[in-house]
Amino acid sequence: MPLTQSQLAHLEKRLHAERTRLNTQLHAFEDVERSEDSQDLAGNLSKIPTHPADIATDSIDEAVGASINTRVSAELGEIEAALSRLIETPDEFGLDENSGEPIPFERLDVIPYARVNVP
């Protein structure tokens, strides 16, 4: 069963809300990194690790931050693609890319950029 106009409007709002949430999250990470960079440039030595465990923790924190940024960026890409599909081909939005079967609204409400159904 195709999605109703009301459901499509709801999903568009969800996509915009998710995009805003993820952009906020991404900018928060960038602000932290920028703040740390400016402290380094100002010669603030209080943030320089002196213990080997601190150095390892900093490396892990950087790797985790990079991983989160990568995930958030990928999710933003999926949201942008979903918004494009919703605007350009609303009759096809919510159809499984593999089978062509409708993705249940309940699934789309949770993951509004879903491209496939789950078995």
Structure notes:
With 119 residues, the chain is mostly helical. The protein has a single domain, classed as Up-down Bundle (Four Helix Bundle (Hemerythrin (Met), subunit A)), CATH 1.20.120. 67% of the residues lie in helices and 0% in strands. The chain has three helices and no strands. The protein has helices at 5-41, 52-88, 105-110. Helix 1 (5-41) runs antiparallel to helix 2. The longest helix is centred in the first third of the chain and has 37 residues, at 5-41. The mean pLDDT is 84.
Classify the beta-strand content into a percent band.
Answer: under 5%
The averaged pLDDT comes out at 84
N- and C-termini, Cα separation: 17 Å
Q: Give the C-level CATH assignment.
A: Mainly Alpha
Structurally, how many domains make up the residues? 1
Structural class label:
mainly alpha
Succession of helices and strands: HHH
Question: Any idea of the CATH topology?
Answer: Four Helix Bundle (Hemerythrin (Met), subunit A)
Provide tags for this entry.
Four Helix Bundle (Hemerythrin (Met), subunit A); 67% helix; elongated; 119 residues; 3 helices; mainly alpha
Give a brief rundown of this model.
This protein is mostly helical and 119 residues long. It has helices at residues 5-41, 52-88, 105-110.
Secondary structure blueprint with pairings:
Blueprint: H1 5-41, H2 52-88, H3 105-110
Helix pairs in contact: 1-2
